[in-house]
Write a structure and sequence with these properties.
CATH class of the largest domain: Alpha Beta
CATH topology of the largest domain: Rossmann fold
Radius of gyration: 26 Å
Structural class: alpha/beta
Strand content: 15-25%
Strand order of the largest sheet: 5-6-4-7-8-3-9
CATH architecture of the largest domain: 3-Layer(aba) Sandwich
Shape: globular
Helix content: 25-40%
């Protein structure tokens, strides 16, 4: 509905009726509604229950949750028939094919999953190595739900995965498959949202495939929620509120529907695997690749030794260059992974050593050579590449390398190779993901260069070699999850090699070949990673043994934000004692013209988290009410990643 608020017209939602009589004096001041947009409900009871949980758990307002949940076009009914045609999502008119038959190992896993569900263990973790055929298991379980008259929500962490999965699932489920992700326009989101409401009223069964925002859709009668690649950090919303985790939210949503949950991955999050080991979740493990294909061989290349011997071609060891040449001659494909976009992370003056820095953020600017500019990856500020250093007049040189530089070096080393790059810069338009993936799958490209986008569940038959050009930044992060994430990313990117036919190869270039994480990746040994990390998590009071709430304070004045943070820390220390950290000045102190201070609160996993959040809210409200806290923005992030 549309309601008058001051001099504005704003969208409103009726959540419930006011049962008690309204005071006549107050009633006289109530202004009438301006417009009722929807006569029938567009929000289900299960949605409302979920949103109220999210508001409470993630310490945000119900309005913030609803803003994220409801499509922007929902209050602007599409009445213009050209606009309707442009927004319409084309139905699938292609052929319907039968499902692939499951192998004996896959059939056994599917039965074990359903046995857990029948024994009242509603959440099951499927730990299946890369290319073991987890998707076929999902498809068979989905089909069983549809036959039972239930709907299914199928979450994936990246839009790139929805593009490759869509065609596969459409050939099986046809028009029953409804796709939803953040690249949809507001109008397209409204069309999909209303289509789901219509299906609910018609009792039409369907499958929703989407990224994390799909948890907000009005899907009714859910029988199964699948969270694929459940370990992925991209399931966590960073900005703006609600800062929710789609995996946790999906589990709560399933509970509202009395539905089962399947978490699937080759590299489980420590939290999920811990709960499976404790018996809270069911655990099934698929340890062989589909069709008997072997896991790829991992080769570590010592970069220090290569540089000392002057056996490098740009950022490629001579051994890797030779192997790429052989594979290209054999007409097979290659994926090159470098988890930095742009040409180089920064440029630096050869005289004074100063890099150009963002005017709004406390970071050096990234070189994007093709666009002939420097860009800040935090706020988007950009500027032409300066010819000389403004401080001393010295010349600049590029420091480090990103995907754009690797693309250039490959084209110099192998001028006949067809190269594509997949990163944030090359996938800004709506169809870019699909175009790049299709081109690589159709052998219109020999070498795919990419960031972490190329690591996540993509399937290409003819990739013989995957090369990680520098693994060290992955595990050299000041983050308690650094080793876990490094293992997951390396194991996932390794899984793109040799998925069909010949055994694949993975070359990892590193200055630290004896690093414990690389040994675990080399042996595909998740258990070793888990045992190593869970001991440290317990010792240093990290999840899953403690819950973490992070607080970030922002203000345009450095002194004011520091004072407010110090006062908040003092207030919290009186309540929580040692559980609250000291005030931290982050490594990037200023972002988008705001200075930042941070605090961390650790709460025991078995403590009363609701009471802790209540006391925390009291503290932040108090700081916001005193002069030093005026206009200081306090951001609360529950279960940060």
């Amino acid at each position: 509905m549309v309601v008058p608020l001051m001099k504005k017209e704003v969208r409103g939602v009726v959540l419930r009726e006011h049962a008690e009589p309204i005071d006549p004096t107050l009633a006289a001041k109530i202004r009438p509604l301006m417009q009722i947009i929807d006569a029938a409900p567009v929000v289900t009871p299960e949605q409302l229950a979920l949103w109220q949980w999210m508001s409470s758990y993630y310490m945000c307002t119900l309005g913030e949750v609803m803003t994220a949940a409801l499509p922007g076009g929902l209050d602007k009914r599409l009445t213009d028939p050209p606009k309707r045609r442009r927004a319409a999502l084309q139905p699938y008119t292609g052929p319907i094919e039968p499902m692939h038959a499951l192998s004996p190992a896959q059939e056994k896993i599917a039965d074990e999953i359903e046995e857990f569900w029948h024994s009242r263990k509603s959440i099951v973790l499927l730990h299946g190595i890369t290319s073991s055929g987890k998707t076929d298991i999902y498809i068979h379980l989905i089909q069983r739900q549809l036959k039972a008259g239930k709907n299914v929500l199928y979450l994936v962490p990246e839009i790139a995965l929805t593009t490759q999965l869509t065609s596969r699932l459409q050939m099986i489920f046809g028009e029953k498959l409804l796709v939803y992700h953040s690249r949809f326009t507001d109008a397209e989101r409204e069309v999909r949202y209303r289509q789901i409401i219509t299906n609910n009223s018609d009792s039409t069964n369907y499958v929703v495939l989407g990224a994390r925002s799909a948890v907000f859709l009005p899907v009714s009668n859910i029988g199964l929620v699948i969270v694929d690649e459940e370990h992925e950090p991209s399931y966590k919303q960073a900005e703006p509120a609600p800062r929710y985790h789609a995996r946790a939210t999906a589990i709560v949503l399933a509970k509202e529907h009395g539905a089962n949950v399947l978490l699937g991955t080759a590299t489980p999050s420590l939290e999920s695997y811990y709960l499976a080991q404790k018996g809270v979740y069911g655990l099934v493990q698929l340890t062989e690749r589909f069709g008997g294909v072997e896991l790829p061989e991992i080769k570590l290349v010592d970069l220090k030794r290569q540089y000392d011997r002057k056996e490098m071609y740009g950022h490629f060891s001579d051994q890797l260059v030779s192997r790429i040449r052989e594979i290209l001659a054999d007409h097979k494909q290659i994926i090159l992974f470098q988890n930095r976009r742009g040409y180089a992370p920064q440029i630096q003056c050869t005289e004074c050593g100063q890099p150009p820095r963002c005017v709004q953020c406390d970071v050096p600017m990234t070189l994007h050579l093709r666009a002939n500019e420097l860009r800040c990856h935090y706020c988007g500020y950009h500027m032409p590449i300066p010819s000389v250093c403004p401080h001393c007049g010295g010349e600049y040189k590029a420091i480090g390398f990103g995907t754009e530089r690797i693309e250039d070096e490959i084209q110099t080393l192998f001028p006949d190779a067809r190269v594509l790059r997949m990163d944030l810069d090359t996938t800004r338009n709506k169809s870019a993901y699909q175009d790049i993936i299709n081109a690589f799958a159709n052998h219109e490209c020999d070498i795919l260069v990419g960031t972490q986008m190329v690591t996540k569940g993509l399937h290409f038959d003819d990739v013989r070699l995957v090369a990680v050009l520098n693994a060290d930044p992955l595990f050299n992060q000041p983050d308690f999850r650094a080793y876990e994430r490094a293992y997951q990313m390396l194991e996932q990117v390794a899984g793109r090699a040799g998925r069909k036919g010949t055994k694949g190869e993975v070359w990892i270039q590193t200055f630290a070949p004896r690093n414990v994480v690389l040994e675990m990746v080399k042996n595909h040994d998740y258990s070793a990673l888990y045992n190593h990390e869970i001991a440290e998590r317990k010792m240093f009071q990290y999840p899953p043994f403690h819950r973490i709430i992070s607080l970030q304070l922002r203000h345009s004045k450095q002194a004011q934000v520091h004072l407010a943070a110090t006062q908040l820390q003092s207030y919290l220390a009186r309540i929580f004692g040692f559980r609250v950290s000291a005030v931290v000045v982050p490594s990037i102190e200023r972002v988008q013209a705001y200075y930042i201070r941070e605090l961390t609160l650790r709460i025991e996993a078995n403590a009363n988290i609701a009471e802790a959040k209540r006391r925390l809210k009291e503290a932040t409200d108090y700081i916001s009410s005193i002069p030093s806290g005026k206009n200081v923005k306090i951001i609360i992030d529950v279960d940060p990643l």
